[in-house]
Write a sequence for this structure.
């Protein structure tokens, strides 16, 4: 159990306090939630001094357990207006955990509104804040380069350094701004993308968090031998499962493009169609072919200890790094949803979003909505790039686009605005894939596929089969997955482990065994799923207090009214079923002894 | 009967040789099959590896026993996922 590092941007003070006993079982999403629940008033201005940005590795962060390096970042979201946890890969989670840091809380706001600060954590335990105005307005890639140069000059740099940072969009307080985390090669290409957390970090005047962890070893366990045995069992299951052992490492997440298109649920031209004629141009198979031909890397992990290895780099025609191999969500949002079928064009847009520090899902959906307004045409990649340049300029148009899909749709009078709780929908249309519609509608996060990834049983035949075109069984499927995901996010596990966990009983057992061996406490199935319920309960109560009602747990009207080709279906899960998904909250809240935020 | 056959990811290599006019896309082509052919019979004929797979006929999941009809599109994927 580590410490909380509390950084007050109002007086630039830093205090280190032990993690309170009541949160000893919490890490990752559970811990960022607990802190936001306890310390951020639900009516706080998300970009004001009352909001707090909380950064936490998962409970298994810093260990050698497979795929345990996810970093949770939480706050009250400027995009949704509710509680937010967005998590990222990259090297920061393990680094923080190995420093004995369970969470960083960034609070207050700097007196100098134009100030740019860097928070630095050193391997010997020293922490400081330095004023670094020279980083103001820089893109994420240049920020990392300049920061590395400065630290190298001061002899502090080594291979073992990790950065958490915002781009210009975060500094400008845009609601589509995410927070970047550097990968093992030092590229700022992993993101806690969703919900505008980059704007929260920007509002604190914080441009960059630098973590220098040279010489720090893995965290210790209550029972080292038991942990190693459980870890080995878990890794074996991940390697054994066809998805985590073969499909993901070979093609990356974008292998989904063709199968979701085949199922008729690949949102095209701002959710007007369920199949994209140009899918071949942006599919995972094509991306792999191009990358291999150009000599790019097609298989690596985004953090140490990853055994799935779904990351890759996209390179330009000369073989130079352009961006992270666009994930399925990104290739879809900047591709099919905008009618763009050229992989190089998608990669350019992805690089620009990454450098601006923008969430690629929100921005792709935003550009799709903008195209739907008729201001620019579907398929026009040059116009899409020009629109992103407006964001960099901070022009009037740029500020609208940078605030996301809903702001853009309202400003330009677009009928179809695909958002739930003000957040843009990801890459699965909820009409022919109804389970994911339940997750979009009910998730405490706003429209978020990762919150309860029903694509597993709806389309992929993982963890059973639930017919995607029918409403039956979807609420139950989504509920189970939302609870399990909240647990995985709290442990710091990559949610892709779920593909193996849903099919291989030993994988799920191994998670409990790793937790038990690491903490010395009992972690069986009941404790793990109980943790997931506690997480969702804190989030739900927070959102209730922030003003959300059942009306917010619905999809936009057009999903109930406009039939989507090729299956010509609408979303048919009933309101009563949607309202059943969080039925466990009162009982869990009573058991936790909480009623409302601050309690 | 004429059926459109599509094979993806690691199964792409099992697409039979096709005349230019039969090619539909990088992953799909038209094939001639005897009437009454089932999904399972196509899988056997193609010699697809004996592992789990995801099968769609006209965009809907279909079991191996499903009988194909003129004009159908049959798409087969190996176990894949992402997110």
């Amino acid at each position: 159990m580590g410490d909380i590092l509390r950084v007050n941007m109002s007086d630039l003070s830093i205090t280190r306090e032990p993690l309170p006993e009541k949160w000893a079982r919490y890490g990752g999403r559970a811990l960022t939630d607990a802190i936001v629940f306890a310390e951020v008033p639900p009516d706080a201005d998300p970009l004001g001094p009352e909001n707090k940005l909380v950064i936490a590795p998962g409970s298994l962060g810093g260990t050698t357990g497979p795929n345990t390096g996810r970093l949770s970042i939480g706050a009250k979201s400027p995009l949704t207006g509710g509680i937010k946890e967005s998590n990222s890969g990259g090297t920061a989670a393990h680094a923080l955990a190995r420093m004995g840091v369970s969470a960083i809380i960034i609070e207050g706001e700097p007196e100098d509104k134009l100030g740019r600060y860097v928070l630095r954590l050193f391997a010997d335990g020293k922490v400081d804040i330095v004023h670094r105005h020279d980083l103001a307005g820089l893109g994420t890639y240049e920020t990392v380069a300049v920061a590395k140069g400065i630290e190298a000059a001061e002899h502090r740099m080594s291979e073992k350094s990790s950065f958490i940072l915002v781009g210009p969009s975060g500094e400008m307080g845009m609601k589509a701004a995410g927070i970047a985390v550097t990968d093992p090669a030092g590229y700022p290409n992993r993101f806690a993308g969703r919900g505008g957390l980059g704007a929260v970090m920007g509002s604190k005047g914080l441009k960059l968090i630098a973590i220098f962890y040279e010489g720090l070893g893995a965290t210790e366990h209550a029972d080292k031998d038991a942990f190693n045995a459980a870890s080995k069992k878990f890794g074996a299951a991940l390697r054994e499962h066809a998805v985590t052992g073969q499909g993901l490492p070979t093609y990356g997440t974008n292998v989904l493009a063709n199968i979701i298109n085949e199922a008729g649920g690949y949102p095209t031209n701002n959710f007007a169609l369920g199949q994209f004629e140009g899918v071949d141009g942006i599919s995972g198979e094509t991306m792999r072919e191009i990358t291999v031909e150009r000599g790019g890397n097609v298989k690596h992990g985004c953090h140490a200890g990853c055994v799935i290895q779904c990351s890759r780099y996209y390179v330009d025609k000369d073989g130079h790094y352009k961006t992270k191999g666009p994930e399925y969500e990104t290739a879809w949002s900047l591709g099919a949803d905008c009618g763009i079928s050229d992989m190089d064009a998608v990669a350019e847009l992805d690089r620009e979003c990454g450098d601006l520090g923008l969430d690629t899902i929100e921005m792709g959906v935003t550009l799709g909505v903008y195209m739907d307004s008729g201001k620019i045409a579907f398929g026009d990649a040059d116009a899409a790039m020009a629109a992103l340049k407006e964001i960099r300029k901070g022009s009037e148009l740029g500020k609208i686009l940078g605030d996301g899909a809903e702001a853009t749709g309202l400003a330009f009078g677009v009928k179809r605005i695909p958002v739930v709780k003000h957040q843009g929908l990801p890459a699965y249309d909820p009409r022919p894939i109804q389970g994911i519609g339940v997750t979009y509608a009910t998730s405490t996060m706003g429209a978020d596929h990762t919150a309860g990834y029903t694509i597993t049983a709806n389309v992929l035949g993982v963890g059973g089969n639930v017919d995607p075109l029918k409403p039956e069984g979807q609420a139950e499927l989504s509920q189970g997955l939302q609870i399990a995901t909240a647990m995985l996010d709290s442990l710091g596990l990559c949610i892709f482990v779920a593909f193996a966990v849903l099919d291989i009983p030993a994988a799920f057992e191994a998670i409990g065994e790793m937790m038990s061996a690491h903490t010395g406490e009992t972690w069986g199935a009941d404790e793990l799923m109980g943790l997931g319920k506690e997480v969702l309960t804190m989030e739900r109560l927070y959102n209730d207090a922030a003003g959300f009602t059942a009306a917010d747990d619905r999809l936009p009207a057009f999903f109930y009214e406009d039939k989507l080709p090729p299956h010509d279906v609408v979303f048919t899960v009933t309101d009563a079923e949607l309202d059943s998904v969080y039925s466990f909250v009162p009982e869990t809240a009573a058991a936790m002894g909480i009623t409302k935020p601050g309690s | 009967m004429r059926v459109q056959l599509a094979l993806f990811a690691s199964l792409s290599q099992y697409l039979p040789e096709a005349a230019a006019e039969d090619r539909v896309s990088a992953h799909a082509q038209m094939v001639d099959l005897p009437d009454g052919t089932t999904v399972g019979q196509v899988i056997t004929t193609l010699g697809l590896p004996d592992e789990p797979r995801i099968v769609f006929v006209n965009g809907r999941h279909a079991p191996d026993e499903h009988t194909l009809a003129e004009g159908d599109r049959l798409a087969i994927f190996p176990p894949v996922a992402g997110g």
